[in-house]
Amino acid sequence: MLNKVRVRLPVGRPRTRPGAVAADKAYSSRANRAYLRKRHIKAVIPEKKDQAANRKKKGSRGGRPVSHDAGLYKERNTVERLINRLKDWRGIATRFDKTPESYLAGLELRASMIWLEDLLRAAD
Description:
By secondary structure, the chain is mainly alpha-helical. It is 52% helix and 5% strand.
């Protein structure tokens, strides 16, 4: 999935390497962290309790504890809330569309509906 990431800034062509990747504990595997480290991408992923316990059990051979930027991790909830608002629309949540193109069109339609709702709410 990380190979498909494209970051678009206000100007220029899309970059393929974001500055950081924020994810939840489910993505804290050694393979994911190694991939991000190899591409020089900051991993903002907290460590699972069982991974921390296994690391501590190894003592000095267990390595250093995983660090993550707590402030940047807190901003992740903005994306989570947007995804939940997208899934409020049944067609997105259940993925009835047969082709990727029609699913993407549904995502874009729902995103524009959310954008318009927010504009109308701000105008009131």
